[in-house]
Amino acid sequence: MEFLVSKPFQLRIMSDELQMEEKIQKIIDEGGDQIQYDLAKILEENGWNAQISPYYKDIATDKSREIDIIARKEFLVKDDFYNQSERVLVRLFIECKYIKNQVLFYFVKKDKKKATDFFRDNHLLRNEEYLDLQKNHYLKDEEVAKTWRPVEGRDDVYDAWTQSVHSMIYYQKNLNEKIRYVYDLPVVVLKNLDNIFRKEDGTISFSKITSNFQLEIDYSYSLPGSLGELKTYYIDMVSFDNFLPFLKEIEETDVLILKRELGEKLFLRGRQSREQGDGYHFEFI
Length: 285
Prior knowledge:
Blueprint: H1 7-30, H2 33-45, E1 49-52, E2 55-57, E3 64-66, E4 69-79, E5 84-97, E6 103-109, H3 112-120, E7 143-150, H4 156-174, E8 181-190, E9 196-199, E10 206-208, E11 213-221, E12 229-239, H5 243-252, H6 254-274, E13 283-284
Parallel strand pairs: 5-8, 6-9, 8-12
Antiparallel strand pairs: 1-4, 2-3, 4-5, 4-13, 6-7, 9-10, 11-12
């Protein structure tokens, strides 16, 4: 027995399928998922380990959330003479975001001391006064985005930076890495900068943002059993197209400073040995 399907019914099925395909394509086009996997590929191709969608416990809600990517890369400073070495682990806490609606960022002059203090807030540099600290990547721009306002719709910017910063705080407080020296950066990767605008401090004019920039956040939080802490965070706002240059910039500025500082520590350790009659030699790798 054969059943005939009417043409209107066939057309309705085809229409439903087309609508479903359009919905799926919209998820791909407007979501951060595809950026997430494309970024992971770029990271892996450049020597980073990319962990996709790890969970953490949010400090604000005490609930489990996920960060899009935690990227890790180790950098080695080696002393061949004494057969000793130390490593610096760099971690990027990356949230990917497609900004659908227009957002206006308000820019102010950057407090370079605050920016350098944020860069120094790690076990390797916290107590050091290294001259080349002025060459860290947070000091590249004279201005920083301080506040923002969506022209309409939801605040995707708030969601993005809190994911990045909260996950970083959680991992700093709750995960002991095997490597002693760890340097962390909060990063938001935007699919594009099409809807991102800036207002200059002291003016009424605005313009389109066309390059990576940083967002400065004065943020207070408290953990169980501790007093509240106020800290200034600098979040790198990076377009997908400019992500690889951003990676290279980090390695050519911040990582270079970290390696030199670690080399100095190895040198001092070697000098102590030399004072006991031993020779010393070290090199950067």
